[in-house]
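Could someone model thymidine-5'-diphosphate with this protein?
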Amino acid sequence: MKTLYACQECNFETTNWSGKCPNCEAWNTLAEDTGPRPISKTPRKLQVKAQTPQQLNSVSTQEHTQKFSTNISEFDRVIGDGIIPGSLTLLSGEPGIGKSTLTLQVANEVAKNHNVLLISGEESVAQIANRSNRLGHTTDNLHAINEFNLETILETIKTTKPKLAIIDSIQVISSLNITSSSGSISQVRYCTEQLMELAKTSNIALIIIGHVTKDGNLAGPRTLEHLVDTVMQFEGDRFQQFRMLRVVKNRFGSCNEIGIFQMENEGLKEVTNPSAQFLEERKPNAIGSTITVTMEGTRPLLIEVQALTNTTTFGYPKRTANGFDLNRLQILIAVLEKYAKLNLQNQDVFVNIVGGMKLKEPSADFAVLSAIASSFLKKPISPDTIIYGEVGLSGELRKVTHHEKRKQEATKLGFTKIISPETEKEITQLITRLKSA
Ligand code: TYD
Ligand code: MG
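Reply:
Sure, complex below.
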């Protein structure tokens, strides 16, 4: 068979390899692929019948009442109050982040009331049992197999009829019907389609695990996300304790919630009061540090922002951000130079968001800017202060959503000064106070 190359971004197929995809112009995305399943050369004459459309308000909406809980409230909340029978969920995350651990814990909780099947192509049954023992699991309803052949997996699920089956991971399973190797676009897509069909016809809930690369792409095709009902991402810094479970697509619920866990020796623990935890190791009155409140879905979170400025000793000044967008940082530095008249041209600027969190909301601008100013001016921001707001290019502060919720969370944790676009209009007000402090 002729070798085909498929773009991992847009699925464009070509027989010639090139460094750049001729279709979407992405670089280094063409990967060897033996192409789709052959379609029969002599198609059968299809007999199709028209469907009778159903009156929507007479359709039973039972599926939502059949949801089953996992007893892990952070997980339940994120997925939409429990797992729906017949749904296919993709749990993606970097290798080593804790996907197998999380699903094992979910499996164990569900197994207290239902049959659960774990299918791992990566670990032996003994390895899974070992981890399960270590996590203190004891239910009789939890079963596991080590298998990577799709047909065997489908057959096993059909015959054992568990309430929930977990497949670890989609990149290692492969079908006999597809010639390309496991992890390739066509394998991953075909296997997912088959699993989806099984979920829908058998009403068994399936969770498949998918590895993503460092830059957040599913190793293999992005298109997988379109094939499933729900896409969950497990993220965080492997070297930090905190793990965030986020939903990026959900056919059955909202996409707003995040669940926060902590990786410990006994597995993942739910973090019920994340704000307090994130602030635990904070040093009061440190220069270059401040607290902001960010919204994760409908949940306000207090997070420490740190900045460090240092005179550049050689070449161009360095600007480094951990957990914050670098371009955004450059803009904030420019605003500080122009409107607050801080001379940062010969300063290296480093920004760090504590706890491995990523601040993507514009509301974090003001806190990052203040932390930089605090470090540069060597003046601490008083420890009972919360700072948030979007910074505009003219040095003005712009309002952000959920002001009341943010305020409540800050007050709950004992912060008395809230500096936000509700209280000030320009960034210079805070800088002037810092300078004269
Ligand atoms: P794992 O669930 O295997 O990650 P993934 O399936 O996403 O690749 O777990 C990853 C890490 O978690 C592993 O390096 C060890 C750590 N870990 C703990 O710290 N405590 C625990 O109780 C467990 C089970 C794992
Ligand atoms: Mg794993």
